[in-house]
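Readers of this paper often ask what the protein records in our data store actually look like. This encoding replaces a full spatial description with a residue-level series of whole-number codes. For reference, a complete record is included directly beneath this paragraph.
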Amino acid sequence: MESSNLPKSIETSKTPQIVAALVAIVVVLLWKAAGWAGALIGALAMLGAPLFAVMGGSSALAWLLHPSATYHHLRYLAPTVLDERFAGSPILVTIPLFTFVGYLMAESKTPDRIVRASRAFFGWMPGGLAMVCIVASAFFTTLTGGSGVTIVAIGGLLYPALRQQKYPDSFALGLVTTGGSLGLLLPPSLPILVYALVAGIDFNMTFKAGLVPGLLIMVLLGIYSAYIGIRERVPRDKPNLKEMGGALWLLKWELLIPVLILGGLGTGLTSLDESAAVAALYTLLIEVFLYKDLSLKKDLPRVAKASMSLAGAVILILAMANALINFVIQEEIPGKVLEAMLRLGLTEKWQFLIVLNVFLLALGMVMDGFSAILVAVPLVIPFAARFHLQPFHLAMMFLLNLEIAFCAPPLGLNLFISSFRFNRPVVSLYRVVLPFVGILTFALLLVMYVPKISTVLVEGDIAKARAEAEARHEAPRDAWMLECVQNDRNNPLPCTPEDEAKWGASKTPEVRPDQGADKPKAAAAPKPDSDEDDLMKDMMGGAPAADAGAAKPKPSGNAEDDLFKEMMDGH
């Protein structure tokens, strides 16, 4: 209160001192908790070091400072990064392709066509233009994967229109700011793909699971928009079938993009990366040759450069995060954290859900969405497995937390983008987004405590997996992986007391060789010395299935032999 009476120059001069003091306090706490290495990395992160450098440096220091000299090799960063299940993942090809599609659409007149079509179909309803903003933002974010792009492209178009139609300024600004994170739960959202890669779940089923929660959020925001429209007596457009048809016809080519992607995946005609490649080529052709919004010579090099720069940064962060996850899993850090939390009394499912959502909200405000997924998922999986959470239920809670974190005060990414785009102080946006954050939080509570919202569309797949296992007179391992989070996906365990009684709580039949072939691989510990036959089996990826659940062998003590076997191990 008193500081407001000080000259502005004095207030400004104090800001660096306050920031420096906070940084110093955090560094000291990290020094006490994690030693000089943790303090150094924390200081670099707070001083603005690139995230990939922080993650890569953390991983390198972790291996070099390992208590066992066997692990003192930077080459231990590589096994999971260069492994075919990461480096060869179709999702890594999909990221730059979808990013390219998003940039092509943002740089063309696609946002204008989306807004026109949405206005034709929803403008006659109470709060119609606000619903236009919700639908257009969700559709655009789904295809571009970037909240910032949506705020700039769709928000920039609709904010003036909302104000012109007499919507309150606070509502209009809050809506376009929140709209930047809508669509993250709807296919073919990039965050869903990255989450599926890290968590080791089927991305097609995750797409299906996200439909109901994603539409629920849009319906809740639509109800609030209708209430505001009625309360403020906002004028509405008259229904015009001719305009609806004309606007839809003008948008027809862009509407085929999700049809190409989801149709190819659903029918099995194309794989994920093939669908992305078809969508990228199709978008380029329609924007350059049909709509002629972009020039092949003038615009394409600029758009390609900008999109590939962003995609390259995302992939680099993914690689460095994967290297760090290698160490985290090798040292069984999630299990140790789980044991510590259980000792503190975290024994009930509802307690875990509360802690989980607070943790994800805080993490989502200080990290971009991809980094938050990569850092948090390996830590959360053991807890989720301990409390038998359904994997798609966990995925929807995780991604919905990211939606909220993007626009939640004080550090939500959307707040800073909206502040820059509409030339408003960030602090002034805190109050205007609170009603929307409240609605998203209500949706999160519904999703959290009514798991069926996230699982209703995948229950048929679970039942089918059970029926197939029953026909083969085998344990329904595939169904278990869909029913509850598994700590070890190569050795799935029962999810219900009935299955535990029938198949055993801690043992399952022998794992098939192809089990988990499309799942990301956990870090492998160096193997002890073995004879030539065993080495050949390792090189060929033919270790017996019976070893899948065996205890982790100790290193031989010979660093070069252990390293060679680690690099050649096919698991």
About this structure: Residues 458-523 form one domain. The radius of gyration is 25 Å. Confidence is low (pLDDT under 50) at residues 1-15, 507-571.
